[in-house]
C-alpha cells in the first residue's frame, strides 16, 4: 500500500479534486498531511455562497472527507493552519471551526494572506494521526 518512500497518496471523490499538481493528502505509517481545502463544492468545483461562514463549513467538511479516506478523522487532528484573506473574518471562521472541534481542539495557527485560490476567503490544512483501527 505504501510506496518505496513510505507514503500513500490519498484521494476521494467526496472532496474537490486538486486544482494543481498536488495530492489531497499524503498518508505515512502514522500521520496524514492534508493539502489546504477551500470552500469548494466537490460536485461543481465552485465556491459555496454565503461568505466566510459557509466557506469555512465547506472547507472543514472537505477536510473531514479527505481524512476519512486516509483512515483518520477530525478527532485525530493534531494541528491545523487556517489562512484567511482578512482577519476581519476571524470571529466568523472561529465560530464554525468550534462546531467541528467542540472538545480538545487541535493546535492551530491562523494567518492573513494576500489572496487564496479561486478568490476564497479561507483555506484550512491539517496534520492528523491515523485512526488506531485502520484498513491496512
Provide structural commentary.
The chain has 136 residues and is α+β, with helices and mostly antiparallel strands. It has one domain: RutC-like (60s Ribosomal Protein L30, Chain: A). It is 22% helix and 25% strand. The chain has two helices and seven strands. α2 (90-100) links the parallel β5 (77-84) and β6 (107-112). α1 (51-69) runs parallel beside α2. The longest helix is centred in the middle third of the chain and has 19 residues, at 51-69.
Q: Which descriptor suits the 3D outline?
A: globular
CATH topology: 60s Ribosomal Protein L30, Chain: A
Count of domain modules? 1
List low-pLDDT spans: none
Report the β-strand fraction as a percent range.
Answer: 25-35%
Strand tally is 7
Outline of the structure:
By secondary structure, the protein is an alpha+beta fold.
Which descriptors would you attach to this protein?
alpha+beta; 60s Ribosomal Protein L30, Chain: A; 2 helices; globular
Give me the secondary-structure topology.
Elements: E1 8-10, E2 25-27, E3 31-34, E4 37-38, H1 51-69, E5 77-84, H2 90-100, E6 107-112, E7 122-129
Parallel strand pairs: 5-6
Antiparallel strand pairs: 1-2, 2-3, 3-7, 4-7, 5-7
Helix pairs in contact: 1-2
Amino acid at each position: 500500500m505504501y510506496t518505496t518512500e513510505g507514503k500513500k497518496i490519498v484521494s476521494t471523490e467526496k472532496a474537490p479534486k486538486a486544482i494543481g499538481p498536488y495530492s489531497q493528502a499524503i498518508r505515512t505509517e502514522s500521520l496524514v498531511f492534508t493539502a489546504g481545502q477551500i470552500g469548494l463544492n466537490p460536485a461543481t468545483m465552485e465556491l459555496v455562497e454565503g461568505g466566510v461562514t459557509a466557506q469555512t463549513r465547506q472547507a472543514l467538511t472537505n477536510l473531514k472527507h479527505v481524512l476519512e479516506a486516509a483512515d483518520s478523522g477530525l478527532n485525530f487532528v493534531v494541528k491545523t493552519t487556517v489562512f484567511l484573506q482578512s482577519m476581519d473574518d476571524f470571529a466568523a471562521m472561529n465560530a464554525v471551526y468550534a462546531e467541528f472541534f467542540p472538545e480538545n481542539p487541535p493546535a492551530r495557527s491562523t494567518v492573513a494572506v494576500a489572496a487564496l485560490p479561486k478568490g476564497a476567503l479561507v483555506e484550512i490544512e491539517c496534520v492528523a494521526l491515523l485512526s488506531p483501527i485502520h484498513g491496512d
